[in-house]
Amino acid sequence: MATIPRLVTRGRTFYFRASVPQDLWDAAGRKEVKISLRTAERSLALMRCRTISNHVDLVVTEARRMVQGQDTAIDQAIRDYFREALDWGQEFADIFAPEAEVDVEDCIATLETRLALLRRRLAVRFCAKTCSSCWTRLGTIPAPSGIGPCC
Fold first, then answer.
1. Which InterPro entries match (predicted)?
2. pLDDT at residue number 111
């Protein structure tokens, strides 16, 4: 009698036995598949063995595709994340980067002038004369020079 791949006997019962490919050991959780064919008849065992063998081959092919698909999906998710982060960074740089025709020193001088004007307005609201105690009440805004105590 010729030997049939994946068909083994144990006592009088036939079994299907196939090794799991090494690259799928972790996914399958085992190194080999053993299934009882529940028969002692060789012809019936041969038919069942071929059927199960075809199914196992399909499952192995699908498992390999799924494992590769997971790796591909993870790689794509990582690429998408960094592409989005880079796009956001570029958008941020485009919006907030100083333009060549903008005079930064002039902008700073204008802001300092406006800040001094607003400080004077705040000081007038707290007391008739500007004094250092008013500026202390304002907290983080430093008092301009030349203001003496009035209260």
1. DUF6538
2. 81
This prediction has a pTM of 0.48
Q: Is residue 89 part of a domain?
A: no
Q: Which two tokens stand for residue 108?
A: 């700073």
Helix (H) or strand (E) holding 34: strand 32-36
d(CA 63, CA 69): 9
More confident residue, 99 or 116: 116
Burial zone of 107 (CB within 10 Å; 0-12 exposed, 13-18 middle, 19+ buried): exposed
Domain of residue 32 covers 7-59
Find the distance separating the first CA and the last CA of the chain, reported in whole Å.
117
Contact 133, 151 (CB under 8 A): yes
Specify if 20 maps to a domain: yes
Gap between the Cα atoms of 38 and 111, Å rounded:
90
**Number of domains composing the chain:** 2
